[in-house]
Design goal:
The protein has about 280 residues and is an alpha/beta fold. It has a single domain, classed as NAD(P)-binding Rossmann-like Domain (Rossmann fold), CATH 3.40.50.720. The protein has an eight-stranded mixed β-sheet, sandwiched between helices. Helix 4 packs across helix 9.
Length: about 280
């Protein structure tokens, strides 16, 4: 495909001012796609927007303030976008964290809120606009870490008052939730024009590891992929014409591959949906 392939399409990417998200919106803009950079910091997003606009004069590039760990922020962001009347073709749930210790304003563990609960709510709220698209897509950035999960302790979706350090196993559970969410959403959207995807971007030296203590974080990143390499599979899932009829599937290195056995557990996917729905409505 050549530059301009995605003219007329709008891509909303969370966590878009750094890491994989930034590399992804830059690649989409390079091909003429309108981009919405959904992120917490306008100050950190401004240089990214200015660079995109400088390189692609006339391209529609916008900033949408959202902290996906804060449900009020998610609701405000969705309301702002919906009221703008702007179309939406692809939502990429990219924002994520690992190794955190904190509780959100809603009382949820910060890792679970950022990686699953907030994106779940944002997806639901933006779904009406995606359903208006010729072929809407929801892309969840997961990880091969989900293979390490043996079970889900559902109490992680409950409100709490005392923070605890989220470990790698917690991160892995949230990444399993990303796959289950994509699968259950695909089931619920059967017969619609919206398709869903979950993927492993590779082990990427992105800001997702910002809460991991130094010098461990520095050493980890030495062994990881660049953000540009990490954006390739998300880009593929967000744009590949051959995936228009595929939904609820899992990808690695821009190829469909089998997720874990738990990720294929339809009953678990339904239970996760119900429990998360209860969490965001409570």
């Amino acid at each position: 495909m050549s530059t301009g392939d995605f003219g007329g399409l709008t891509f909303l990417v969370t966590g878009a001012n750094s890491g994989i998200g930034r590399a992804l919106v830059e690649a989409l803009a390079e091909r003429g796609g309108s981009v919405v950079l959904a992120a917490r910091s306008e100050d950190r997003s401004r240089p990214v927007l200015e660079e995109i606009r400088r390189r692609h004069p006339g391209l529609d590039a916008q900033f949408l303030p959202v902290d996906v760990s804060d449900l009020t922020s998610v609701r405000n962001a969705a309301a702002q976008f919906m009221s703008s009347g702007h179309g939406l073709d692809v939502l990429v749930n990219n924002a994520g964290v690992a190794g955190t210790q904190g509780i959100t304003p809603d009382g949820f563990d910060l890792t679970y809120a950022t990686n699953h609960i907030g994106p779940f709510l944002l997806t639901n709220l933006l779904l009406p606009r995606l359903q208006e698209a010729k072929q809407g897509r929801v892309v969840n950035i997961s990880s091969v870490a989900h293979f390490r999960v043996k079970e889900i302790d559902w109490s992680v979706l409950e409100r709490r008052t005392t923070p605890k350090r989220s470990t790698f196993p917690d991160y892995a559970v949230t990444k399993l939730m990303n796959v289950l969410h994509a699968k259950e959403l695909a089931r619920r959207l059967t017969g619609s024009r919206v398709t869903t995807y979950a993927l492993h971007p590779g082990a990427v030296a992105s800001n997702i590891w910002r809460k991991v203590p130094q010098p461990l974080q520095w050493f980890m990143k030495l062994l990881m992929l660049s953000n540009e390499a990490g954006a390739r599979t998300p880009f593929y899932c967000a744009t590949a014409p051959e995936l228009a009829a595929a939904t609820g599937r899992y990808y690695d290195k821009s190829r469909e591959t089998a997720p874990s056995a738990l990720a294929n557990n339809a009953a678990m996917a339904r239970e996760l949906w119900i429990r998360t729905e209860q969490a965001v409505s409570g």
